[in-house]
Design a protein that fits this description.
Helix content is 59%, strand content 20%. The chain has 321 residues and is of the alpha+beta class.
């Protein structure tokens, strides 16, 4: 009986040892695979990429690093560290808000706030404000600046060219508060301004009246310019006529003077010729010329009667001729 019990105990011990050995061998085989899977999972989760236009800040065990992480792939321990990414490009914050006017009206408007986070101030922003800085800081500062600036202007100013001055004033006031906090407000744009119905109609009527007044003033100036132009043209025509008449008169005078001078010269020539003739025609020459004339007359075959001047003229025998 003791021998049988001894054998049974030996068998149970052998089975127990065999089971333990098999389990140990299986655990030995699985351990490298588990370690490899854990290592791969750890490697994949401990790398991130900071993209262009954003910076990262490491937070290790709840403490923020004061050095920023620039763009590119970054490795970190996922069990201890987290990288917080913040965009540093220009952001557009669109809101719909009511703006007060100087006369106490409420003007609805769509507003675009263009702002940029300063990269070197990102750790300080995360430390003091957190990632919800738009709702915590930028919007309250805008509402305060808009209420302060718009209350200085009438509602019609927001609907006219004064809107640009309002936008610049809000921008300046916001930067006065947010620049030291790590933000730069680049522009504030008021869009789709909606005035109360009655005020909008009154402004439109006033603008139409102003446009009509400007149109009438333009017409008046145009008529005045046309009248001045006609006066100038008339004066020019008058001056032209005076110059023309003066020229014609001077031309007539010059022409008359020329004719008188020509007649004078001609008279002088005739007088000089007569003087020459009178000087050169002596009695002997005159008698000779008479004889020559009678001879020429005597050559004619026709019958003729010649009357002489008396004894001073020689007698020509006509028959002999």
């Amino acid at each position: 009986m003791n021998k049988v019990l001894g054998r049974e105990k030996v068998r149970v011990l052998l089975e127990t040892f065999r089971s333990y050995s098999l389990h140990r061998s299986l655990m030995t085989l699985r351990r490298p695979l588990v370690l490899l899977l854990l290592a791969g999972a750890t490697a994949l989760s401990s790398c991130t990429t900071v993209r262009q236009g954003e910076v990262g800040v490491k937070r290790t065990l709840g403490r923020l690093d004061q050095q920023i992480v620039v763009s590119g792939p970054k490795a970190f321990n996922p069990f201890l560290t987290t990288i917080i990414k913040v965009p540093v490009t220009t952001q557009n914050l669109e809101i719909r808000s009511s703006l007060p006017s100087k006369e106490g009206l409420s003007i609805a408007s769509d507003i675009s706030i263009l702002y940029r986070v300063k990269a070197d101030q990102v750790p300080n922003i995360l430390q003091t404000t957190g990632l919800a800085y738009e709702n915590i800081l930028i919007l309250p500062v805008f509402r305060s600046a808009a209420a302060d600036v718009c209350a200085r202007y009438f509602a019609k100013d927001m609907y006219s060219a004064e809107r640009s001055a309002i936008e610049k004033a809000i921008l300046t006031q916001m930067n006065g508060v947010l620049t030291t906090r790590g933000f730069e407000i680049e522009n504030v744009l008021l869009k789709n301004i909606t005035l109360p119905a009655g005020l909008a109609k009154a402004i439109e009527d006033k603008l139409e009246s102003e446009q009509e007044a400007l149109r009438m003033e333009f017409l008046k100036q145009r008529e005045t310019r046309d009248a001045e132009r006609r006066v100038i043209e008339a004066e020019g025509q008058k001056r032209i006529a005076v110059v023309r008449a003066t020229g014609e008169q001077e031309a007539a005078i010059i022409q008359a003077q020329g004719k008188a001078e020509a007649m004078r010269i001609e008279a002088q020539a005739v007088r000089f010729t007569n003087q020459l003739i009178h000087r050169d025609l002596s009695p002997a020459v005159l008698r000779y010329k008479s004889i020559e004339a009678f001879r020429e007359l005597a050559k004619s075959q026709n019958a003729k009667t010649i009357i002489t001047g008396g004894g001073n003229t020689p007698i020509v025998n006509m028959l002999a001729e």
